[in-house]
Amino acid sequence: MKPTEVMARACPSLGHLGSSFYFTPETVAAGKAVGLDGFRFYFLGRGGVLGDVESAVVTSAFGYFKPSLVDKMWTSAKQRHPARDAARLYVGCCQDHGRARLGDVAGLGGFCDAAETLVSKAMADPGGLTLFAGWAAEPLAEDLLGRAMQLVAVLRELRGSAHLVAVRASGLSTPLAHKIKRPGDVATFGWEEGEIPEPTDEDRRTLEMAEQLTDRLLEPIFAELDDEAATAFLSGLEGVQTALA
Description:
mainly alpha
């Protein structure tokens, strides 16, 4: 199975599945227990793998968000709870999400083996993949259900980090790329009406080039999977998708 085929089948769902625990009632409750509302827990938990850094570092790793929004959420959240502790708690929420929902998914062992192969290959040269590297450095859950969900989240960050590199390399600003891809979420990411220019047809073509570049960056990583591993990976991911639907 060609790496491009595996990516075409897997990557569209990884973004949604890997973020599926972000704002569940259970995750929000875990954040509130340490003094963080849902949005602050998202920033501090997801970004806390970077350590106790300045907000500009988080902005660079996340992309797309208005820097002033990141600064407000990140700085105020750090005042309430340590960043690294929040990250560990957030990863735990991710693992618990899998434990609660993936019990009926078959083939998770093969999926995890294949996913860990991808992560290991990417970590051999993680240059520019900052947020992915932070998530990949967190210890994996020992149980299969938590481990599978955690790996889905890590692979989400792999694709996202590679795409952020590709967007910048293609010459687009991240706010403009965001407006093209998610026009309904501009305000949610902190941008006011008119702050981001209207995208042109050339901008849209450039974003498509960035998508293609993202695939080229990831292709050597997915090439690590032989046919058996690729089949196990896709089958397990399909089961995860069904369970989290």
